[in-house]
């Protein structure tokens, strides 16, 4: 199974790339959505979060605002939280990829902001980094989540700079377009090229 990883900062446009992969018939995993599933269903993960950040889990639910205030202004606190959540997300991604392969899927996509650092990158054949200007990311995040500009900026600046993705990814998509349609076209072109080349490599390998 060809697995394409999609990484980049919040608000850069990773979800759009994942949607285009899905249109191509790929089995896809949105790790942000998966994380929120685990927040509701993983008692073990919630227990670890509460142990590390007392008072942020109440009645089996995470107080996201309280947790966010703690971690987005403290790099070490964010690192500790990521160490917990990435572990559970990575385990679930591995299970879902295995099940998809058993079901006969030949193409998969993983969307994760911390794809490289969490170890999920090792499960991918190709990694695409999605970058975008900070102002565009702020606007998208405010519109999507209904948060203040201050909080959006805090979240974005707690993440990696664009050059981190440029150094560590196989391909870069720069989402500086005025419309989503223009960016979708760029996504399709790159994904089609990657899938074509990887399938050619697989055919050649099998022939040898």
Task: Please give a structural write-up.
- The protein is 59% helix and 14% strand.
- The protein is of the alpha/beta class and 208 residues long.
- The protein has a single domain (2-203), classed as Rossmann fold.
- The protein starts with a strand and ends with a helix.
- The chain is globular and about 60 Å long.
- A five-stranded parallel beta sheet has the order 2-5-1-6-7, with helices on both faces. A two-stranded antiparallel sheet has the order 3-4.
- It has nine helices and seven strands; from the N terminus they run E-H-E-H-H-E-E-H-H-E-E-H-H-H-E-H.
List the helices and strands and how they pair.
Elements: E1 2-8, H1 14-23, E2 27-30, H2 31-41, H3 43-52, E3 57-58, E4 61-62, H4 64-71, H5 75-102, E5 107-111, E6 126-131, H6 134-145, H7 149-157, H8 162-168, E7 171-174, H9 180-207
Parallel strand pairs: 1-5, 1-6, 2-5, 6-7
Antiparallel strand pairs: 3-4
Key traits:
two-stranded antiparallel sheet, 208 residues, Rossmann fold, globular, five-stranded parallel beta sheet, 14% strand, 9 helices, alpha/beta
Give the gist of this structure:
The protein is an alpha/beta fold. It is built from nine helices and seven strands.
CATH superfamily: P-loop containing nucleotide triphosphate hydrolases
Structural class by sheet pairing and helices? alpha/beta
Q: CATH fold name, please?
A: Rossmann fold
The sequence of SSEs as H and E is: EHEHHEEHHEEHHHEH
Helix content: 55-70%
The major sheet is characterized as: 5 strands, parallel
Number of helices: 9
What is the general shape? globular
Radius of gyration: 18 Å
Arrangement of strands in the largest sheet: 2-5-1-6-7
* Name of the CATH first level: Alpha Beta
User: How many DSSP E strands?
Assistant: 7
What are the low-pLDDT stretches, counting only 5+ consecutive residues below 50?
none
Task: Give the end-to-end Cα distance, rounded to a whole number of Å.
Answer: 19 Å
Mean pLDDT: 90
